[in-house]
Amino acid sequence: MSNPAQIILDGKTFELPVIEGSENEKAIDIGKLRDLTGYITYDVGYKNTGVTKSAITFLDGEEGILRYRGYPIEQLAEKSNFLEVAYLLIYGDLPTKEQYAAFDKSIDDHSMIHEDVKTILHGFPSYAHPMGVLSSLICSLTAFYPESLNPNASEKTINDSIIRLIAKMPTMVAWAYKKSKGRPVNYPIRSLEYCANFMHMMFADPTEIYEVDPVVSDALNKLLILHADHEQNCSTSTVRIVGSSQASLYGSISAGINALWGPLHGGANQEVIEMLDQIKNDGGDTKKWIAKAKDKNDPFRLMGFGHRVYKNFDPRAKIIKKACDDILHKLGVNDPVLAIAKELEQAALNDEYFVERKLYPNVDFYSGIIYRALGIPTNMFTVMFALGRLPGWIAQWKELRNTKEPIGRPRQVYIGEKTRDYVSMVDRG
Ligand code: SDX
Q1: 147 and 253 share one domain
Q2: Nearest C-alpha to atom 26 of ligand 1 is from which residue?
Q3: Which residue ranges of the chain lie beneath pLDDT 50?
Q4: Which domain-ending residue is among 261, 276, 304?
Q5: Half-sphere exposure in the Cβ direction for 262 (13 Å, CA)
Q6: What separation in Å is there between the alpha carbon of 217 and the centre of ligand 1?
Q7: 268 lines ligand 1 (CB under 6 A)
Q8: Ligand 1 pocket residue status of 230, Cβ below 6 Å
Q9: Which of 308, 354, 393 best tests ligand 1's pocket when mutated (most atoms within 8 Å of CB)?
Q10: Distance from the CA of 375 to the center of ligand 1, in angstroms?
Q11: Number of C-beta neighbours around residue 202 at 10 A
Q12: Which one of 204, 210, 218, 231 has the minimum C-beta count within 10 Å?
């Protein structure tokens, strides 16, 4: 064992192997720790714990680096499109022209959803949160495609499930929106590019012709690319641990959607815009709200700020902030909360509390301002995050399945009652 880690427990020295990744990340392999020492490790929130080796996404929180399969996020956001990035994440390489054409056609071929899904959709009240609707509709695919439940399904069956998810989620999202408005749903149009098709399904209405502004579809491509994967975050870890029990891809993705829903994770983009509106309606006194965010007795947090991994800057936030200015200018949208967001960012970046804790704007801080400028309602922002993250979830689930990882089953340190005998109700007094 070259250059092992040494740990001394109860006067005995134990050696544990050290592994190193392709970007020189180092980890102590504790796979044999309990057998060797009787001890386990303890790491609430897995802040220092690697749960897998992955070849999909690399991020460096100190340097603000994010790469999908080795390609820098800045280049992909600038030069690629969402469907091409989805192919890259899922299959490992950028597609050739022929591969892309075949992928695009397969997505078109599967973008319709079974008409019976409308029965499930109409079972929800119009005020249902679209994340709950989406996770239910995605899980319903296990009923329409029962072959997806087979843990030993063929590669073709697995790939069919992958294509159906990428193809049908935009339709489901748009149908959930139309349902909430009491308006008739739109069907996908093969001739439209992926993001343009989504915007058409969201906003077209039988009463008029709806043309998708290329500025809008370009903006959406960029946003979805920036959300497409982020290594072992909360929702991706959920998809992987559910998938590790050999649950279906549809069931694993539905679980990931629910994990993303939380306000500390993907739900933050909705919380940010509601926070910015609250600050605007309160008179726009950013100093007052910065003070509230620092006050331990105040439950208020500066939503869209801080990150478990990025301790310098979130490269996605930098790209989205710049895109904000460009897109709102091109669309002629003047949203006063953009100025408030920039003021908050500046105040925080010059405040000891945030600097000391390395709290910077994250991917959610500016994204909602763009979604609102595109006409997407606030309660759909987290669903947009899910739409973007889908290829990453799929790629991570596929990697776990291909490497045949064992079922995820963490340990614990028990702090409850020691053994005690049962006393019957009569004798308990
Ligand atoms: C996403 O993991 C990923 O990659 C996620 C994601 C992805 O692409 O999948 O990047 C997407 O989820 C981005 C994060 C969105 N969430 C928010 O914006 C919610 C607000 N931010 C936080 O609640 C918080 O920063 C987290 C959840 C993002 C990170 O939490 P950690 O790493 O567990 O850090 P922590 O809560 O322990 O905070 C450390 C300190 C604490 O102060 P002290 O106890 O040391 O005095 O920083 C403070 C916190 O109180 N703090 C904040 C704060 N975030 C952390 N104080 C005020 N406002 C904030 N936003």
Answers
A1: yes
A2: 307
A3: none
A4: 261
A5: 10
A6: 31
A7: yes
A8: yes
A9: 308
A10: 28
A11: 22
A12: 210
One domain for residues 134 and 245: yes
Q: 302: which 2 tokens?
A: 């500066």
Give domain status of residue 184, yes or no: yes
Alpha-carbon gap, residue 429 to 423, rounded angstroms:
10
For residue 424, being part of any structural domain is answered with no
CATH number of the domain encompassing residue 165:
1.10.580.10
Same domain membership, residue 33 and residue 92: no
Closest atom of ligand 1 to 233 CA is 2
The string of pLDDT tens digits covering residues 195-237 is: 999 999 999 998 888 899 999 999 999 999 999 999 999 999 9
How far from 341 is each of 191, 289, 303, 313, 384, CA to CA, in Å? 38, 12, 11, 16, 20
Are 127 and 240 found together in one domain?
yes
Q: Is 303 in the pocket of ligand 1 (CB under 6 A)?
A: yes
Burial profile 310-342: b = 16 or more Cβ within 10 angstroms, e = fewer:
beebbbbbbbbbebbeebbeebebebebbebbb
Active-site residue 364, yes or no? yes
Domain that holds residue 40: 2-50
Task: Using the Cα atoms of residue 407, residue 412, residue 416 and residue 422 in order, give the sign of their dihedral.
Answer: positive
Both 168 and 42 in a single domain? no
Q: What is the DSSP string of 3-58?
A: S-EEEEETTEEEEE-EEE-TT--EEE--TTHHHHHS-----GGGTT------SSEE
In a domain, 269, yes or no: no
pTM over the 0.90 mark: yes
